[in-house]
Amino acid sequence: xxxxxxxxxxxxxxxxxxxxxxxxxxxxxxxxxxxxxxxxxxxxxxxxxxxxxxxxxxxxxxxxxxxxxxxxxxxxxxxxxxxxxxxxxxxxxxxxxxxxxxxxxxxxxxxxxxxxxxxxxxxxxxxxxxxxxxxxxxxxx
Length: 141
What we know:
The protein has 141 residues and is of the alpha/beta class. Helix content is 41%, strand content 13%.
């Protein structure tokens, strides 16, 4: 039996927010979360196919919204793909007008410590592998 890859969080953001997102990623990793962000792309890899594969494999997709990311076609596409897959978890780096079709999902203000605590709880629940029990086989059938 092959071990499944560890659950991870995909982070979508505008490159204009890279330094701020680097801090967000550091905090997430300090909380024990496995994080994938495009800083891990290798030279010569196609962005679209790699990012689509990473979003499909992620347990959750954290979208970091700002005035920059709402103007990014890549972030908009990644956010919509995440929403369609039921993985969309939005945070606000700074106040901005969210895309109309993504406004109905509750977001976390990254500057709010209480919101961060809720976010960590939600993400931990999505990223911690559920322990399998023998009766799970019967429940899944």
